[in-house]
Design goal:
It contains 13 helices and nine strands. By secondary structure, the protein is α/β, with parallel strands linked by helices. Strand 2, helix 1 and strand 3 form a beta-alpha-beta unit. The structure holds phosphoenolpyruvate and magnesium ion (MG). Phosphoenolpyruvate binds next to strand 3 and helix 8.
Length: 324
Amino acid sequence: AQERYASIRDKPAETLCGQRMTLMMNAGLMADLPSLESSGAEGVGLFRTELQFLVRSQMPKRAELSNIYARVIEAAKDKRVCFRTLDIGSDKVLPYMRAVDEPNPALGWRAVRVGIDKPGVMRMQLQAFVRAAAGRPLTVMFPFVAQREEFTLARAEMDKALERERILGHPLPERIEVGAMLETPSLAFAPDSFYDEVDFLSIGGNDLKQFFFAADRENELVRRRYDTLNVSFLTFLEQIVARCEAHKTPLSFCGEDAGRPVEAACFAAIGLRVLSMRPASIGPVKSVLRRTNLRELKAVIEEARQTGVMSVRPAVMEYLKEKL
Ligand code: PEP
Ligand code: MG
């Protein structure tokens, strides 16, 4: 399938109306990195770090992790890699950590919540990122932040890791960006100071959508019940885009929907400029974006919304079918 898109691999993801989009890839293994070249992705917008923890029978050592992260940074050459801290707990239990029995694991003690309450593992991981970056830029984001204070606490841990590295006399990252995933609806309504405090935000659409519609992403009975192009959800995304624009907070979208061409085109039409997806989706998404006029598509979405439809998908599909 990648061959089909080889001719546009090195071309920009620029729409018919001249809007430049940035397409990044999601990764989670060293073995994913060659896809940066082959897919034409401009960087890694989401590096999930769970796998290195899940494949071991005991807690990985800091040196092991920093070696892996350093190899990832090297393999990416000059492209940006956004590392996400461990998103684990509840349903994804590490065999060497005590499991807690929770009635609703997806709403439970996971990700940054664990990192704040029991900071040992998160500290070790942050130290590993800092050690790996050594003189190069570093980008880190925290998953599942639900209120500003959680970000403030997590970022303070990052500052501690940097200070520790400085005292030890190791080279610090050349520059550092610390952001949050926006995957709980609460963050869309966070105080202005939150939008100023983060260096960037990345919408975790998989979780954001599950919490927005209160529909479990793992439950076959409901997981396809609500459309991403549902008017309520699109309007919600637009509000997030507007808040980020008002605060000049860089925003990306890294959930699975970013890799679906129709969804991706609609995200671009409502103002998202950076999308991160599985490598195989870069070609198809770029191909559609390059043949789409965002102003026209925006008008189609607007018109459909005015008529009171539940989802703009049928109208968008009809428009795209004519154009593509
Ligand atoms: C998301 O929630 O959209 C996301 C990118 O994170 P994950 O799928 O790992 O929860
Ligand atoms: Mg998520």
